[in-house]
Amino acid sequence: MVLILLSLATALLSYLLGARLNRMTAFALALLPGLGALILGVGTVDLPWFSEHIRLTLAPNHWGLVMLVLTNAMVPLIVLAGWRDGVHFSLQVALTFFMQAALNGVFMAQDGLAFYIFWELALIPIYFLALRFSEGDRFAVTLKFFLYTFLGSLAMLASLFYLYSQTAVGDDGHHSFAYAALQAVELSSTEGFWVGLGLFLAFAVKIPLMPFHAWQSDTYTQAPAGGTMLLSGIMLKMGLYGLFVWFVALAPESLRYEFIADWLNFRDLILIMGLAGILYGAFIAMRQNDAKRLIAFSSLSHVGLIAMALLTLKSDGTNGAVLQMLVHGINAIGLFMVVDIVERRLGHRDLTQMGGFAKSSPLFAALTLIVVLGTVAVPLTNGFPGEFLMLKAVYNSGTGACGILAALTIVFCAVYMLRFFQLSFMGPEKQVLSPLSWNEKWALMLIAGMVLYLGVQPQVVVDFIQSNTEQWLNAIAESGGMLS
Amino acid sequence: MGLYALILWPLLGFAINGLLGSKLPKTVVGMIGTAAVLIPFVSAVSMWGAVQEGALVSRAFTFLQVGDLHIEFKLLLDRLSLVMALVITGIGTLIHLYSMAYMAEDAGFYKFFAYLNLFVFNMLILVLGANFMMLFFGWEGVGLCSYLLIGFWYHNPEFGYAARKAFVMNRIGDLGLLLGLFLVIQHFGSLDYQVVFSEVAKVSHPQWVYTSIAVLLFIGAMGKSAQIPLYTWLPDAMAGPTPVSALIHAATMVTAGVYLVVRSEALYALAPVARDLILYIGLATSLMAAFIGLKQNDIKKVLAYSTVSQLGLMFIALGCGAYSAAMFHLVTHAFFKALLFLGSGSVIHGMHHEQDIRRMGGLRKAMPLTYWTFLIGTLAISGFPFLSGFFSKDEILLHTFQHSPVVYALAVFSAGLTGIYMFRMFFLTFHGTYRNSHYPFEKVHESPALMTIPLAILAVLSVLGGLLNLPHYLTHNMAEGLAHWLAPLFVFGDASVHVEASTEWALLGVAVSVFAIAFFWMRHKYISQGAVAEEDADMPASGSVLAHKFYVDELYDSLFARPLQRLGEWMYRVLDRKGFVQGTDALGAITLWKARVAARLQSGNIELYLIIMVLAAALMLGLEMFA
């Protein structure tokens, strides 16, 4: 609750400050919720909301806590260097904080309706940010993004209502939206499939999984940099988090639903979607000249693997996936920041028109290289441990061919990320970039620091989530979802 | 601290030079960089006695622990890793010294030393790691440094391309290695060498487990050690500064694949199919690269193909199960190939960046020290009796003879080709007449002492390197030192040679005569007849195929690179834009059309609204009444 209230307060405050809000103040405000939570504790809340039995329950599990750390650590960096200077700065910052509040709610909610409300609430600020500040045909692009995610969310709401109606009636004679109650509902395979499908759609769109990605590349590319960072760095983690916590764990029965008897069930289908996304995103990223679109497709490729790993229902795969959700947030924000820093100076993002930045900006080149290596998952950068665990789980649990195809990502990712680095920072010097401003420099240095730290000490995260993961996997196995 | 002292020095050197190097004077940067490699060399030497007693282990922290999987950040110094560490830091020190002069004019001097130190750090992790994960850290880390150093002169897009090619090809190999590690975890429950190999020694798994792991690990070795089909990156890697070619692409990194197989001897002993694969891939690589080497005119490219060919020879030894023979050749090759590369660097330095041997000639007068040391290197690699290469190559040939006469014949043929391309290059460079009209002979100069001293030391090592593992027929007391040193490590043991003494002498005769034929033929052609390598335009078809390296690059390009590019292009333009994105738009358009139809009802005609309202109210009342 501390997190949400402080985020809302800082949102209001920065809106009121208007033109008087400078970058340093905004950064300090952005740190407030996180620091507040560190001092006061995240705090659990259980209040009556719509009525005595539809309650607001906020009590983060350990996965949620990791996502809270991501949210409240990365929002300050987005404020620090994601938004450009200008007359709209305070509005953008205010909406970012509003978004932070909603995201914090999503990752803490232990109650179906509260989860849904925060989930939809998060759409509002990003909708306005994208609508107001996107480039190109911003109405069409933003509308498509909105409709896509909104339709997905409606399907989720229907499923949640159905689950609610099936919960055991408590002493007070009412059903319950509480997470534990929803989880306890036993569903038949077909029933489970429809409930699961509704939940799945919301998350598949948000992640996005192939083939629900049609909104993604245009939105990521045309949205303002800060918005893209919020979307790719944090908001899509709502989808991945939801995919496991609010879909797999709630309706594990659906995973067994057979489309083609003994040959293709719902879980297989999701695994295939993930795999398709890995390859599809990678192939396309290899040929993009718009730096931002390249990273958008690279992101599609990376989240495909995370989704696959979550669906392995193996301890190494799921733990690796959560680690990678954190890591992907850091690296995606870093990469989009790099592209925006370049775009601010050149006015375009066309890789074929860039070259040789390393000569005039060696520090910028070194920091970018670190983030690039993290994305390529070179050992001792943050991308490696998660990718190792995920690929191992996919390889050992599925068919070998599936694992090998997924593991091709380590080759393809090197191809497109090094091409990106080559065309922009290496080669003959075509432009001289003006030096990084203090805020850009610090934001990138902090990100590079996280890339290296988590590359050497991934166990810090894994230790934190491991027992939580085991509980879930046991619960799923017990409810007979997918015996692994 | 223990073993960490070995790896932390180069890391420290990297940090200091990387962060502060631009502000320090070049001499200080160079000295820091060199000291960061020299200190671990001295400590490794001092640990010799301790290692003889038993392996040293240092554990730092848990890297990953998930479920049953437990991966430690842990170092191991045993007899094998000590040999590797000595080669890396010993030759590394000499190359650092050399670089202080070679790179003196370069603006990126501090960056160069930082990268070199980072490389040594990663290479030491590779060989000192106590588990496969540490090996993989170093494995990918050296790949990264190789990428950075090949593309060191990054303003040249071709060099950048070569760097990316190296990284990506290595990653293909790494994919195999990674899958191999997954299987190791799956079947042996750990990545720790001790655990894995003692599990393997029980021979309690089905055959295919050993075979598939062995093959997958070897795919990793193919990438790193430039074997068919993943070898084409290494010749292109010559884009990097010459000391890099000497250290990374000749003496140390490219031998990591050999180290991996020797380290995993227990596995390979149980996987004869995988060993055969190694043998034939090594043989094919050795021959193919030697053929290509015959027609290369870039002094560094000749040496690069020679390296590929010699690595092939080491894999032939591994395929025969002769692990210590492979290690022996690894060490002697590190001596003479580092010498040859540094010598070629001295030539390039003295001729102001000229690398084409057709534009050289007669350099022996201008660069006497380089000439004599280069001669020693050439003799050593071609198998001149009693130099280091003679012994190490001969031992491998002996093993192949024992394995199969056909393999032996082909391996001898490959060794003969080595002599031919090496002496062709040597005579064209140092003998005959000077052929460069753009750079007057008077300006060609001998390199400074900082460069020639490492040459001299390496020349001595190239001569005496054979002492490490002398054959039985020369001595009884000092014979097979390296083999005896490594023997305690092997679970199933090293292949031993048991041919009759007369056969051994006969084989020796063959080796010497092959050397003699190559030497005198080339001497006749390039000195007595004064022939010069033909210009590209005058080349006959057969030579052209070799000069174009059998068109393998072109083949890979049209088989893999371009189809993938076209697929990516098609996926974006057709599948994504026309399919998914416009498909969604079409759905939207249909919805809009339906909305327009519905909107016609909202015509603003109040009468119509009223009529509908009344009808609806009547309907509802009616329903209510009948319900």
Structural class of chain A: mainly alpha
Number of domains of chain A: 2
* Radius of gyration of chain A, in angstroms, nearest whole number: 22 Å
Strand residue percentage of chain B: under 5%
Describe this structure in words.
The complex is a heterodimer of chains A (484) and B (627). With 484 residues, chain A is mainly alpha-helical. Chain A folds into two domains: 1-256, no CATH class; 263-484, no CATH class. Helix content of chain A is 73%, strand content 3%. Chain A has 21 helices and four strands. In chain A, the strands form two sheets. Chain A has a two-stranded antiparallel sheet. In chain A, strands 3-4 form a two-stranded antiparallel ribbon. In chain A, α3 (62-81) packs parallel to α14 (315-346) and α16 (362-376) packs antiparallel against α19. Chain A is globular. Chain B is mainly alpha-helical. Chain B folds into three domains: 1-270, no CATH class; 276-534, no CATH class; 575-626, no CATH class. Helices cover 72% and strands 3% of the residues of chain B. Chain B is built from 26 helices and two strands. Chain B has helices at residues 4-20, 26-46, 48-53, 79-102, 109-128, 132-150, 157-188, 193-201, 207-224, 233-236, 242-251, 256-263, 265-269, 272-293, 299-319, 323-350, 363-366, 368-382, 388-403, 405-430, 449-464, 481-486, 501-528, 541-547, 552-601, 606-626; strands spanning 56-66, 69-77. A two-stranded antiparallel sheet of chain B has the order 1-2. In chain B, α14 runs antiparallel to α15, α14 runs parallel beside α20 and α15 packs across α19 (388-403). The longest helix of chain B has 50 residues, at 552-601. Chain B is globular, with a radius of gyration of 31 Å. The mean pLDDT of chain B is 90. The chains are: A mainly alpha (484), B mainly alpha (627). The interface between A and B is large, with 59 and 50 residues.
